[in-house]
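One chain is below:
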Amino acid sequence: MLFPPTLRQLMQQLERLPGIGTRSAQRLALYLLRRPEEEIVRLAESLVQARQRTRLCQRCFFLSEDDLCEICRDPSRDADTICVVADPRDVVAIERLEQYRGLYHVLHGLISPAEGVQPEDLKIGELVERVRTERPREVILATPANVEGDATALYIARLLKPMGVRVTRIAYGMPVGGELDYADAATLGYALSGRQEL
């Protein structure tokens, strides 16, 4: 490769980002080189600050700069309902609907024995404890409609149902293998309103 070593190193780091291949990494690196130095410094500072300041909410495990995220701190939210999602992006996708006013619980992944992800690797134990202490009326399982999402939802449902909580699962409108983050608002809204009890 004809690029200088420092530029190659930048390209290699960019290529490690999800969705960025070799050509995209080259385009991004060359674009960044043409930007004013102050802009690059601001970008680098933003990356460092986001990494240093962002942590997990102690209650729901969404992203926050404080002990509790904005949603958990909001007294107008319906504490009788907890929506369980796999990833922080799923919280953002549901919040865009402006239809759901309950709380969340982020698992940070899905059960996947093939990838070595076991229930204890996720925030499932914390969810069980949370349901035990907070006593919500309903837990909505909003995991993706794929093998891992279904397995995770069934596992959680088996743990929670004996506790007397209503356990539902979003069902309608989401295609099999579909990710919440990619669903349009109408489809996701229909899936949420058409949830089924497990």
